[in-house]
Write a structure and sequence with these properties.
Number of helices: 3
CATH architecture: 2-Layer Sandwich
Helix content: 25-40%
Shape: globular
CATH topology: Alpha-Beta Plaits
């Protein structure tokens, strides 16, 4: 499985609005993308402007397809002005017992 982690720093005064957008994006992805297996949204307890996403897709191609969806393009366009910083990392999931 293919894992994506994203950290965001919301612009001052935009955290509540940005969180609503993230949650809507997560729900839509889970409901409409069969290959999106998990999409968690977390907010920092130390810095309420900071958010963390944990997403799992069946494979890298499924994540590429996610990036091409209309709902992602719309989210990305609307969220851009609300974000000071964004960092995306991708991971290949390892499983215990596999060598």
């Amino acid at each position: 499985m293919f894992v994506v982690t994203v950290t965001f720093e919301a612009s001052p005064g935009q955290a509540e609005n940005f969180e609503r957008m993230l949650l809507k994006q997560a729900r839509y992805s889970l409901q409409n993308e069969v290959a999106c297996l998990r999409f968690d949204v977390a907010r920092s307890t130390e810095n309420p402007q900071q958010f963390f996403l944990y997403e799992i897709y069946q494979n890298a191609a499924a994540f590429s397809e996610h990036l091409e969806t209309t709902h992602f393009s719309s989210f990305n366009l609307q969220a851009g002005p609300l974000v000071v910083e964004k960092q995306v990392q991708t991971w290949q999931m390892s499983h215990p017992g596999e060598e």
